[in-house]
Amino acid sequence: MKILLTAATTFEIEPTLQQIEKKGLLTQTEIAVLITGIGPVNTTFLLTKAVISNKPDLVVQAGIAGSFNYEDLPAGKTVLVKYDALGDLGMEEKGKFTTVFDAGFAGKNHLPFTDGWLINPHSLLNNSPLPVVRSVTINKVSDSLVQKQQLMATFAAQTETMEGAALHYVCLQQSIPFLQIRSISNEVGERDKSKWKVKEAVENLNAELIKLLNNY
Fold first, then answer.
1. Taking the chain (216 residues) in consecutive chunks of 10 residues, what is each chunk's mean pLDDT?
2. Which 3-state string (H, E, C) describes 163-177?
3. Which helix (H) or strand (E) holds 210?
4. Highest CATH level, class, for 2-214
5. Which of 8, 15, 129, 185 fits a disulfide with 206 by CB distance 3.0 to 4.6 angstroms?
């Protein structure tokens, strides 16, 4: 089996990369690594090139994320993303955000979308002990309360990232199984880095990521 492990930054998956280098994983599969850089544009371009060239059997994207509901999904909580969406693709007028789907400029059910969502059908999500969540992908991380409220009202998402929807989009288009695993580092809208728990998020993310990879 060929797995493509991808992340926005090396930092987010460094503990797993160390295990791969030391052959500390129990898996017998071939694991390739792709660091895309931050954002959906980088991710879409580089991931498309990688899956067409290497034809992996599974793509796993790992990284940290923000939480819209810090009580239910606090720092360090690790989740799997089933639903993802392009959170800032649309129109904003008088403080109200409208998606391109709701505005009638794109079909909600045109492949690879289902009712405007990019949905992962992988069976592992039905049996995982990790919470399975809805996420939204944006180009701009912000402390704007308006942006946060818009995203919550429009998508009812639980987490926020800058690359997830690109993974879903590419893999659904290419009919390649995929998983998006994330660990919470901060509350959405909180820009005071002293309140972020990045170290804890990365530790927990990689502990679960190594477990996941060892199952293949």
1. 96 95 74 97 98 96 97 97 97 91 95 98 93 96 89 95 98 98 95 91 97 90
2. CHHHHHHHHHHHCCC
3. helix 198-214
4. alpha beta
5. 15
Q: How many C-alpha atoms does 128 have within 13 Å on its Cβ side?
A: 21
Token representation of residue 85: 């969406």
Beta strand pairing call for 178-187 and 78-84? antiparallel
For the chain, count helices (H), then strands (E).
6, 10
What's the rounded Cα separation, in Å, for the pair 207 and 32? 19
User: Distance between terminal CA atoms of the chain?
Assistant: 8
CA dihedral 125, 126, 130, 132 (to 10 degrees): 70
Please report, as a single letter, which amino acid is at residue 39: G
The answer to whether the beta carbons of residues 39 and 162 sit under 8 Å apart is: yes
Bridge partners, 99 (sequence order): 90
CA atoms lying within 13 Å on the CB side of residue 211:
11
Q: List, as one string, the DSSP characters of 141-167.
A: ----HHHHHHHHHHH--SEEESSHHHH
Looking at the DSSP assignment, which residues form a beta bridge with residue 97? 92
Whether the model clears a pTM of 0.85, i.e. scores above it, the answer is: yes
Kind and range of the H or E run holding 187: strand 178-187
- List the beta bridge partners of residue 59: 4, 178
Amino acid letter for position 155 = F
What DSSP element (H or E) covers 47? helix 40-54
* Amino acid at residue number 71: E
Which two tokens mark 114?
């289902």
In the chain, where the domains are located: 2-214
